[in-house]
Write a structure and sequence with these properties.
Elements: H1 2-27, H2 34-39, H3 45-70, H4 76-85, H5 89-98, H6 102-112, H7 118-136, H8 140-172, H9 177-232
Helix pairs in contact: 3-8, 3-9, 4-5, 4-9, 5-6, 6-7, 6-9, 7-9, 8-9
Length: 233
């Protein structure tokens, strides 16, 4: 009899423990995936996502382009100087034409203008340099625009979230978690997304601008060196 009573007590205790564990598990909030969290932001997330794609494309494309433009063979200007000192203008011209670089295109333009006044040659080299710089800076300014627009879109999402909260409260006449949770999701998700995209575009804009400035500095020095070669000859 005593053994039966102890067994029933153990069963009841085990059932109670299982029920308590189940209740605790049910009380814990279920995890949410990143995609589901993004979708909580509503329609405003679509333009923010589109801006992020544009930002990544411009950053990657411009980075590759600028790196290729900066890849100038070692001793290029020394080779140009040696060929021009020897009077081999055709060789210098061919070397410049075969080198895929903004600097080489500037030098080639200057070589083609040899025979004209130095001022005209300098002007031609500067004009080519301006065109090459404009090509390098292509679309970088768009990153600056995105850096300003993305946080503003996030702020619009914040306003939409607040509107949703007040609409839910007005519709139900109740001020509770159920009424404000949806609007809070929209507020926080869109604000965070807009700020993140804006920071990425802002960093990309200044990073690429610094790369272009360094390349422009090299081009200017090489142009001055080329004009010095002409004056010496």
């Amino acid at each position: 009899m005593l053994a039966t009573l102890l067994l029933q007590t153990a069963v009841v205790t085990a059932d109670s423990t299982t029920a308590a564990a189940a209740a605790t598990a049910a009380a814990q909030p279920s995890s949410i995936s990143v995609i589901d969290l993004i979708l909580k932001g509503g329609w405003i997330m679509f333009p923010i996502f589109a801006l992020s794609l544009v930002s990544f494309y411009i950053i990657i494309e411009r980075y590759i382009t600028i790196r290729k433009a900066a890849a100038l063979p070692d001793g290029f200007m020394n080779q140009i100087r040696n060929l021009m000192v020897k009077g081999d203008l055709q060789g210098a011209k061919m070397l410049s034409a075969q080198t895929a670089s903004p600097l080489a295109r500037m030098i080639e333009k200057g070589i083609r203008r040899i025979g004209q006044p130095l001022k005209d040659i300098e002007t031609s080299v500067e004009n080519v340099g301006k065109v090459e710089i404009a090509r390098l800076e292509k679309n970088i300014s768009i990153l600056g625009i995105i850096a300003g627009i993305a946080p503003m879109l996030g702020f619009v999402g914040t306003i939409v979230g607040v509107i949703n909260i007040f609409y839910a409260i007005a519709s139900t006449g109740d001020f509770g978690i159920a009424q404000i949770s949806g609007g809070l999701y929209t507020k926080m998700v869109t604000s965070a997304a807009g700020l993140i995209v804006g920071m990425i575009a802002h960093i990309g804009y200044h990073w690429l601008s610094i790369m272009v400035e360094r390349l422009v500095f090299r081009m200017e020095n090489s142009a001055i060196e080329f004009m010095d070669i002409l004056q010496d000859n």
